[in-house]
Amino acid sequence: MSGGRTSTTRSTGRNDWSSWPTYQASILGLPGKYWYPVMWSNQLARKPVAVTLLGRPIVFFRDKGVPYALHDRCPHRGVPLSYGRQQFPGTISCPYHGWTFDLESGVLRAVITDGPDSPLCGKVAVESYPVAERLGMIWAFVGDGEGSPPPIDEVIPRELRENSFSMGGRIDVRTGGWRFAAENGYDEGHAKYLHRNSLWRFFKLMPTWSRTRVVPGGDGWITRVQDEVHWEATFPGLGKWSGQRWWKRGAKARMLGASPSKAPKVDPVIRDLNVPGNQSIRLPGLLRIVHSRFIHYEWYVPSTEDEYIYVQVFVQFKKGFAAVIARLRYLFFVRWLFHGQFTGQDRWMVDVIDAPPERLYRPDVSITRWRALCEQAPKTGQALIDGRAHLSLATPLESENREGGGDGSDY
User: Is 237 exposed, middle or buried (0-12, 13-18, 19+ CB in 10 A)?
Assistant: First the structure.
Protein backbone atom coordinates (compact mmCIF):
# COMPACT_ATOMS: atom_id res chain seq x y z
CA MET A 1 0.00 0.00 0.00
CA SER A 2 1.10 3.58 -0.52
CA GLY A 3 -0.39 6.25 1.71
CA GLY A 4 -3.27 3.84 2.41
CA ARG A 5 -3.73 2.91 -1.27
CA THR A 6 -3.86 -0.74 -2.28
CA SER A 7 -0.63 -2.04 -3.75
CA THR A 8 -0.60 -4.42 -6.70
CA THR A 9 2.65 -5.93 -5.45
CA ARG A 10 2.28 -8.84 -3.03
CA SER A 11 4.86 -10.78 -1.06
CA THR A 12 4.64 -14.45 -0.15
CA GLY A 13 7.16 -14.11 2.65
CA ARG A 14 6.60 -14.21 6.40
CA ASN A 15 6.31 -10.43 6.62
CA ASP A 16 3.35 -10.10 4.27
CA TRP A 17 0.34 -8.54 5.96
CA SER A 18 -1.56 -11.81 5.44
CA SER A 19 -0.09 -12.76 8.83
CA TRP A 20 -2.62 -10.27 10.25
CA PRO A 21 -5.79 -10.77 8.12
CA THR A 22 -8.07 -8.57 10.26
CA TYR A 23 -5.53 -5.78 10.22
CA GLN A 24 -4.92 -6.19 6.50
CA ALA A 25 -8.63 -5.74 5.80
CA SER A 26 -9.00 -2.73 8.11
CA ILE A 27 -8.25 0.00 5.57
CA LEU A 28 -11.24 1.95 6.85
CA GLY A 29 -10.94 1.01 10.51
CA LEU A 30 -11.12 -2.06 12.73
CA PRO A 31 -14.25 -4.23 12.85
CA GLY A 32 -16.65 -3.53 15.69
CA LYS A 33 -17.91 -0.18 16.90
CA TYR A 34 -15.76 2.49 18.51
CA TRP A 35 -15.95 6.03 19.77
CA TYR A 36 -13.78 8.35 17.65
CA PRO A 37 -12.87 12.03 18.22
CA VAL A 38 -13.78 14.01 15.12
CA MET A 39 -13.45 17.77 15.65
CA TRP A 40 -13.18 20.47 18.31
CA SER A 41 -16.46 21.32 20.01
CA ASN A 42 -16.16 24.97 19.00
CA GLN A 43 -16.06 23.96 15.32
CA LEU A 44 -19.67 22.74 15.48
CA ALA A 45 -22.29 25.48 15.69
CA ARG A 46 -25.61 25.81 13.81
CA LYS A 47 -24.00 25.28 10.42
CA PRO A 48 -23.77 21.61 9.31
CA VAL A 49 -20.27 20.16 9.18
CA ALA A 50 -19.46 17.31 6.77
CA VAL A 51 -16.91 14.70 7.87
CA THR A 52 -15.85 11.43 6.25
CA LEU A 53 -15.41 8.84 9.00
CA LEU A 54 -14.47 5.22 8.28
CA GLY A 55 -15.35 5.86 4.65
CA ARG A 56 -18.83 7.09 5.57
CA PRO A 57 -20.09 10.60 4.80
CA ILE A 58 -21.53 11.99 8.03
CA VAL A 59 -23.09 15.38 8.73
CA PHE A 60 -22.72 16.85 12.23
CA PHE A 61 -25.18 19.46 13.41
CA ARG A 62 -25.80 21.27 16.69
CA ASP A 63 -29.33 22.09 17.81
CA LYS A 64 -30.02 23.91 21.08
CA GLY A 65 -26.47 23.14 22.18
CA VAL A 66 -26.74 19.38 21.56
CA PRO A 67 -24.62 17.74 18.81
CA TYR A 68 -26.12 15.22 16.39
CA ALA A 69 -24.80 13.12 13.50
CA LEU A 70 -26.61 11.65 10.48
CA HIS A 71 -25.59 9.89 7.29
CA ASP A 72 -24.78 12.73 4.91
CA ARG A 73 -26.96 11.68 1.99
CA CYS A 74 -30.61 12.35 1.30
CA PRO A 75 -32.20 9.05 0.19
CA HIS A 76 -34.30 10.92 -2.41
CA ARG A 77 -31.65 11.97 -4.97
CA GLY A 78 -28.41 11.60 -3.02
CA VAL A 79 -27.79 15.27 -2.20
CA PRO A 80 -25.60 15.78 0.91
CA LEU A 81 -27.66 16.88 3.90
CA SER A 82 -24.67 18.98 4.95
CA TYR A 83 -25.72 21.40 2.20
CA GLY A 84 -29.04 21.87 3.96
CA ARG A 85 -30.35 23.99 6.82
CA GLN A 86 -32.76 23.71 9.72
CA GLN A 87 -36.34 24.66 8.88
CA PHE A 88 -38.01 23.15 11.96
CA PRO A 89 -36.70 22.56 15.52
CA GLY A 90 -34.93 19.22 15.96
CA THR A 91 -34.58 18.58 12.22
CA ILE A 92 -32.42 19.22 9.17
CA SER A 93 -33.82 19.66 5.66
CA CYS A 94 -32.27 18.67 2.35
CA PRO A 95 -31.69 21.77 0.20
CA TYR A 96 -33.05 20.13 -2.97
CA HIS A 97 -36.69 19.26 -2.25
CA GLY A 98 -37.03 19.85 1.48
CA TRP A 99 -36.97 16.29 2.74
CA THR A 100 -36.75 16.88 6.49
CA PHE A 101 -35.14 14.41 8.90
CA ASP A 102 -35.25 14.10 12.68
CA LEU A 103 -31.80 14.88 14.09
CA GLU A 104 -31.94 12.23 16.81
CA SER A 105 -33.45 9.26 14.98
CA GLY A 106 -32.84 10.11 11.31
CA VAL A 107 -36.51 9.40 10.50
CA LEU A 108 -38.18 11.44 7.74
CA ARG A 109 -40.53 13.89 9.48
CA ALA A 110 -41.73 15.99 6.55
CA VAL A 111 -41.38 16.51 2.81
CA ILE A 112 -41.90 20.23 2.32
CA THR A 113 -42.59 20.00 -1.44
CA ASP A 114 -45.05 17.09 -1.00
CA GLY A 115 -47.30 18.74 1.55
CA PRO A 116 -48.22 17.96 5.17
CA ASP A 117 -49.78 14.58 4.28
CA SER A 118 -46.78 13.10 2.44
CA PRO A 119 -47.12 9.28 2.66
CA LEU A 120 -43.33 8.90 2.97
CA CYS A 121 -43.15 10.42 6.45
CA GLY A 122 -42.09 7.83 9.02
CA LYS A 123 -41.28 5.28 6.31
CA VAL A 124 -37.86 6.60 5.25
CA ALA A 125 -34.82 7.25 7.41
CA VAL A 126 -31.11 7.97 7.28
CA GLU A 127 -28.69 6.35 9.70
CA SER A 128 -28.03 8.28 12.89
CA TYR A 129 -24.91 8.00 15.03
CA PRO A 130 -24.45 8.46 18.79
CA VAL A 131 -22.53 11.66 19.55
CA ALA A 132 -20.85 12.94 22.72
CA GLU A 133 -18.63 15.80 23.84
CA ARG A 134 -15.53 15.17 25.95
CA LEU A 135 -12.12 16.85 26.24
CA GLY A 136 -13.45 19.78 24.25
CA MET A 137 -14.05 17.50 21.24
CA ILE A 138 -17.00 16.02 19.36
CA TRP A 139 -17.00 12.20 19.40
CA ALA A 140 -19.02 9.81 17.22
CA PHE A 141 -19.74 6.11 17.73
CA VAL A 142 -19.29 4.44 14.35
CA GLY A 143 -18.55 1.00 12.95
CA ASP A 144 -19.89 -2.41 12.03
CA GLY A 145 -21.88 -4.76 14.20
CA GLU A 146 -24.81 -4.23 16.51
CA GLY A 147 -25.31 -3.13 20.09
CA SER A 148 -25.66 0.15 21.93
CA PRO A 149 -22.54 2.22 22.58
CA PRO A 150 -20.67 1.93 25.86
CA PRO A 151 -20.48 5.07 27.99
CA ILE A 152 -18.11 7.54 26.35
CA ASP A 153 -16.26 7.99 29.65
CA GLU A 154 -15.05 4.38 29.46
CA VAL A 155 -12.85 5.20 26.47
CA ILE A 156 -11.31 8.38 27.90
CA PRO A 157 -7.91 7.58 29.48
CA ARG A 158 -8.32 7.09 33.21
CA GLU A 159 -5.86 9.82 34.15
CA LEU A 160 -7.93 12.37 32.24
CA ARG A 161 -11.14 11.32 33.98
CA GLU A 162 -9.75 11.53 37.48
CA ASN A 163 -7.56 14.65 37.49
CA SER A 164 -7.57 18.35 36.66
CA PHE A 165 -5.38 19.33 33.73
CA SER A 166 -4.47 21.94 31.15
CA MET A 167 -4.83 20.81 27.55
CA GLY A 168 -3.88 22.00 24.10
CA GLY A 169 -4.02 20.24 20.78
CA ARG A 170 -4.42 20.15 17.02
CA ILE A 171 -6.76 18.24 14.73
CA ASP A 172 -5.74 17.83 11.09
CA VAL A 173 -6.79 15.71 8.15
CA ARG A 174 -3.62 14.11 6.81
CA THR A 175 -2.88 11.96 3.80
CA GLY A 176 -1.82 8.35 4.27
CA GLY A 177 -3.58 5.37 5.80
CA TRP A 178 -4.53 5.43 9.50
CA ARG A 179 -2.65 2.14 10.07
CA PHE A 180 0.61 3.64 8.82
CA ALA A 181 0.05 6.61 11.11
CA ALA A 182 -0.52 4.35 14.12
CA GLU A 183 2.53 2.25 13.27
CA ASN A 184 4.65 5.36 12.91
CA GLY A 185 3.52 6.67 16.27
CA TYR A 186 4.31 3.42 18.07
CA ASP A 187 7.39 2.58 16.00
CA GLU A 188 10.45 2.00 18.17
CA GLY A 189 13.23 2.95 15.79
CA HIS A 190 12.26 6.00 13.76
CA ALA A 191 12.41 8.76 16.38
CA LYS A 192 16.09 8.11 17.09
CA TYR A 193 16.99 8.84 13.49
CA LEU A 194 14.19 10.76 11.76
CA HIS A 195 13.69 13.23 14.62
CA ARG A 196 17.30 13.50 15.81
CA ASN A 197 17.70 17.08 14.54
CA SER A 198 14.13 18.31 15.00
CA LEU A 199 13.69 21.62 16.78
CA TRP A 200 11.73 19.88 19.55
CA ARG A 201 14.78 17.68 20.28
CA PHE A 202 17.39 20.28 19.42
CA PHE A 203 19.17 20.19 22.79
CA LYS A 204 18.25 16.61 23.69
CA LEU A 205 20.43 13.65 22.85
CA MET A 206 18.74 10.78 21.03
CA PRO A 207 19.91 7.17 21.46
CA THR A 208 21.51 5.42 18.52
CA TRP A 209 19.81 2.08 19.16
CA SER A 210 17.93 0.15 21.82
CA ARG A 211 16.76 -3.31 22.84
CA THR A 212 13.01 -3.22 23.23
CA ARG A 213 10.14 -5.46 24.26
CA VAL A 214 6.40 -4.86 24.52
CA VAL A 215 4.46 -5.67 27.67
CA PRO A 216 0.70 -5.81 28.30
CA GLY A 217 -1.01 -3.55 30.79
CA GLY A 218 -4.32 -2.47 32.21
CA ASP A 219 -7.08 -0.56 30.40
CA GLY A 220 -6.11 -2.21 27.12
CA TRP A 221 -2.65 -0.62 26.78
CA ILE A 222 0.44 -2.37 25.46
CA THR A 223 3.67 -0.60 26.41
CA ARG A 224 7.17 -0.42 24.95
CA VAL A 225 9.95 -1.11 27.43
CA GLN A 226 13.58 -0.42 26.57
CA ASP A 227 15.96 -2.82 28.31
CA GLU A 228 19.11 -1.44 26.72
CA VAL A 229 19.83 2.07 25.45
CA HIS A 230 23.00 2.81 23.47
CA TRP A 231 23.95 6.42 22.79
CA GLU A 232 26.59 5.59 20.16
CA ALA A 233 27.84 2.53 18.30
CA THR A 234 30.75 1.38 16.16
CA PHE A 235 29.65 -0.39 12.98
CA PRO A 236 32.14 -2.95 11.56
CA GLY A 237 34.01 -1.65 8.56
CA LEU A 238 32.26 1.72 8.73
CA GLY A 239 33.11 3.51 11.95
CA LYS A 240 31.37 5.16 14.88
CA TRP A 241 27.96 6.81 14.68
CA SER A 242 26.15 8.90 17.26
CA GLY A 243 23.33 11.38 17.40
CA GLN A 244 25.57 13.62 19.51
CA ARG A 245 26.23 17.13 18.23
CA TRP A 246 28.48 19.73 19.79
CA TRP A 247 25.49 21.65 21.12
CA LYS A 248 24.17 18.50 22.83
CA ARG A 249 27.21 17.79 25.00
CA GLY A 250 25.38 18.80 28.15
CA ALA A 251 22.53 16.49 27.26
CA LYS A 252 24.92 13.60 26.81
CA ALA A 253 26.51 14.23 30.19
CA ARG A 254 23.12 14.15 31.88
CA MET A 255 22.10 10.99 30.05
CA LEU A 256 25.30 9.21 31.06
CA GLY A 257 25.14 10.38 34.65
CA ALA A 258 28.24 12.58 34.46
CA SER A 259 26.38 15.80 35.19
CA PRO A 260 25.58 17.10 38.69
CA SER A 261 22.17 18.19 37.39
CA LYS A 262 19.25 16.89 39.42
CA ALA A 263 16.95 14.27 37.99
CA PRO A 264 13.78 15.78 36.51
CA LYS A 265 10.89 16.18 38.91
CA VAL A 266 8.04 13.87 38.05
CA ASP A 267 4.46 15.12 38.19
CA PRO A 268 2.59 13.21 40.96
CA VAL A 269 -0.24 12.17 38.62
CA ILE A 270 2.23 10.79 36.10
CA ARG A 271 4.23 9.07 38.83
CA ASP A 272 1.09 7.34 40.11
CA LEU A 273 0.39 5.91 36.66
CA ASN A 274 3.38 3.63 37.29
CA VAL A 275 3.77 2.72 33.62
CA PRO A 276 6.77 0.49 32.75
CA GLY A 277 7.69 2.52 29.65
CA ASN A 278 6.96 5.92 28.23
CA GLN A 279 5.07 4.84 25.11
CA SER A 280 1.80 2.86 24.96
CA ILE A 281 -0.96 2.21 22.45
CA ARG A 282 -4.46 0.73 22.60
CA LEU A 283 -7.49 0.10 20.40
CA PRO A 284 -8.84 1.46 18.15
CA GLY A 285 -5.78 3.71 17.63
CA LEU A 286 -4.78 5.82 20.65
CA LEU A 287 -1.11 6.48 21.39
CA ARG A 288 0.05 7.73 24.81
CA ILE A 289 3.54 9.16 25.37
CA VAL A 290 4.30 9.71 29.05
CA HIS A 291 6.93 12.22 30.21
CA SER A 292 7.92 13.44 33.62
CA ARG A 293 5.89 16.66 33.25
CA PHE A 294 3.30 16.00 30.54
CA ILE A 295 1.46 13.35 28.53
CA HIS A 296 0.99 13.51 24.78
CA TYR A 297 -1.88 11.63 23.10
CA GLU A 298 -2.49 10.86 19.44
CA TRP A 299 -5.71 9.46 17.96
CA TYR A 300 -5.52 7.99 14.45
CA VAL A 301 -9.07 8.17 13.11
CA PRO A 302 -9.82 6.44 9.78
CA SER A 303 -11.39 8.76 7.21
CA THR A 304 -10.88 7.43 3.67
CA GLU A 305 -8.41 4.95 2.19
CA ASP A 306 -6.02 7.84 1.61
CA GLU A 307 -6.68 10.10 4.61
CA TYR A 308 -7.02 9.99 8.39
CA ILE A 309 -8.03 12.47 11.06
CA TYR A 310 -4.97 13.12 13.21
CA VAL A 311 -5.80 14.29 16.74
CA GLN A 312 -2.93 15.52 18.91
CA VAL A 313 -3.48 16.42 22.57
CA PHE A 314 -0.86 17.76 24.99
CA VAL A 315 -1.79 17.53 28.69
CA GLN A 316 -0.20 18.94 31.85
CA PHE A 317 -1.81 18.18 35.20
CA LYS A 318 -2.03 21.74 36.47
CA LYS A 319 -4.69 23.81 38.22
CA GLY A 320 -5.33 27.50 38.70
CA PHE A 321 -2.62 29.92 37.63
CA ALA A 322 -0.24 27.05 36.84
CA ALA A 323 -2.79 25.80 34.30
CA VAL A 324 -2.82 29.23 32.64
CA ILE A 325 0.98 29.17 32.33
CA ALA A 326 0.82 25.64 30.92
CA ARG A 327 -1.73 26.76 28.35
CA LEU A 328 0.44 29.67 27.25
CA ARG A 329 3.46 27.37 27.01
CA TYR A 330 1.48 25.16 24.69
CA LEU A 331 0.23 28.00 22.49
CA PHE A 332 3.59 29.73 22.06
CA PHE A 333 5.99 26.79 22.16
CA VAL A 334 4.65 23.24 22.08
CA ARG A 335 2.03 23.80 19.36
CA TRP A 336 4.62 24.95 16.84
CA LEU A 337 7.65 22.84 17.73
CA PHE A 338 6.05 19.55 18.77
CA HIS A 339 2.59 19.47 17.15
CA GLY A 340 3.94 21.29 14.12
CA GLN A 341 7.52 20.77 12.95
CA PHE A 342 8.20 17.55 14.89
CA THR A 343 5.09 15.62 13.83
CA GLY A 344 5.41 17.21 10.39
CA GLN A 345 8.38 14.90 9.91
CA ASP A 346 6.07 11.97 10.71
CA ARG A 347 3.54 13.31 8.23
CA TRP A 348 6.20 13.23 5.52
CA MET A 349 6.98 9.56 6.18
CA VAL A 350 3.41 8.31 6.61
CA ASP A 351 2.44 9.80 3.25
CA VAL A 352 5.20 8.01 1.34
CA ILE A 353 5.19 4.57 3.02
CA ASP A 354 4.81 1.79 0.42
CA ALA A 355 4.02 -1.48 2.22
CA PRO A 356 3.44 -4.37 1.95
CA PRO A 357 5.62 -6.11 0.91
CA GLU A 358 8.03 -5.25 3.69
CA ARG A 359 11.10 -6.64 5.43
CA LEU A 360 10.89 -6.10 9.19
CA TYR A 361 13.75 -5.88 11.68
CA ARG A 362 14.13 -6.37 15.45
CA PRO A 363 12.83 -2.96 16.61
CA ASP A 364 9.63 -3.64 14.65
CA VAL A 365 8.44 -5.72 17.59
CA SER A 366 6.44 -2.61 18.43
CA ILE A 367 4.64 -2.78 15.08
CA THR A 368 4.04 -6.53 15.11
CA ARG A 369 2.66 -6.41 18.67
CA TRP A 370 0.30 -3.60 17.67
CA ARG A 371 -0.91 -5.56 14.63
CA ALA A 372 -1.41 -8.64 16.77
CA LEU A 373 -3.45 -6.63 19.26
CA CYS A 374 -5.67 -5.44 16.40
CA GLU A 375 -6.33 -9.08 15.49
CA GLN A 376 -8.11 -9.38 18.83
CA ALA A 377 -10.40 -6.40 18.14
CA PRO A 378 -13.93 -7.27 19.24
CA LYS A 379 -16.22 -7.81 16.28
CA THR A 380 -19.20 -6.11 17.95
CA GLY A 381 -19.15 -3.41 20.57
CA GLN A 382 -16.23 -1.45 21.95
CA ALA A 383 -14.07 -3.07 24.58
CA LEU A 384 -10.73 -2.30 26.18
CA ILE A 385 -9.40 -5.80 25.86
CA ASP A 386 -6.61 -7.05 28.08
CA GLY A 387 -3.32 -6.39 26.33
CA ARG A 388 -2.20 -9.93 27.19
CA ALA A 389 -4.60 -11.27 24.55
CA HIS A 390 -2.15 -10.31 21.82
CA LEU A 391 0.66 -12.52 23.09
CA SER A 392 -0.73 -15.63 21.41
CA LEU A 393 -0.19 -13.91 18.06
CA ALA A 394 3.41 -12.90 18.71
CA THR A 395 5.93 -13.13 15.91
CA PRO A 396 9.55 -14.28 16.37
CA LEU A 397 10.81 -10.74 15.74
CA GLU A 398 10.64 -9.65 19.37
CA SER A 399 13.94 -8.77 21.04
CA GLU A 400 15.04 -11.02 23.87
CA ASN A 401 14.27 -9.77 27.36
CA ARG A 402 17.33 -8.27 29.02
CA GLU A 403 18.19 -6.76 32.34
CA GLY A 404 19.54 -3.25 32.67
CA GLY A 405 18.38 -0.34 30.58
CA GLY A 406 17.86 3.36 30.94
CA ASP A 407 15.50 6.08 29.79
CA GLY A 408 15.60 5.99 26.02
CA SER A 409 12.67 8.37 25.64
CA ASP A 410 12.06 9.00 21.94
CA TYR A 411 10.16 12.21 22.44
Answer: exposed
